[in-house]
Specification:
Elements (H helix, E strand, L loop, with lengths): L2 H7 L11 H20 L8 H10 L5 H17 L9 H16 L6 H28 L1
Helix pairs in contact: 1-2, 2-5, 2-6, 3-4, 4-6, 5-6
Length: 140
């Protein structure tokens, strides 16, 4: 699975810098979210988030409220993040890596709601983490 496709899969285009730990962590996080969404909705493959949502909506016994959240809040929230100007400090990296670790630890899917919860938390938190870290940079 090509990491760069994971951000594009979410319909986000940000230029990643090589050897940038934060970009690498974000791409791993996107990759993990993409993989977990496919497992959660039992979908083999999809070209992007929009095709994914169309397929998910046709499934039986599907979590329609989560699909709706992704469409109405998740994608717009991700698209509103200025990925080109994220903080480049260790605190921001640590915040992303903690989310990655937490989502990874739920990949056994013993409790699918936990996976859903982490995806929502991650999407809601990236901008918040950036704001907190930018304020920290100003203070220091």
């Amino acid at each position: 699975m090509n990491n760069e496709n994971s951000s594009k899969w979410f319909d986000i285009n940000f230029k990643t810098k090589t050897d940038n730990k934060i970009d690498e962590a974000l791409l791993r996080l996107f990759d993990l979210m993409k993989k977990s969404l496919h497992i959660y909705f039992n979908i083999e493959n999809s070209s992007d988030i929009h095709e994914f949502l169309k397929i998910a909506a046709t499934k039986n016994n599907v979590d329609h409220s989560f699909i709706e959240w992704i469409k109405v809040k998740g994608i717009p929230r991700l698209k509103s993040i200025d990925f080109e100007n994220l903080p480049s400090n260790d605190q921001f990296l640590a915040m992303i890596e903690i989310d990655e670790y937490c989502l990874k630890s739920e990949m056994d899917f013993k409790e699918p709601e936990e996976v859903r919860g982490w995806i929502i938390t991650i999407i809601n938190s990236i901008q918040e983490y950036a704001n907190i870290c930018k304020q920290l940079e100003v203070v220091q």
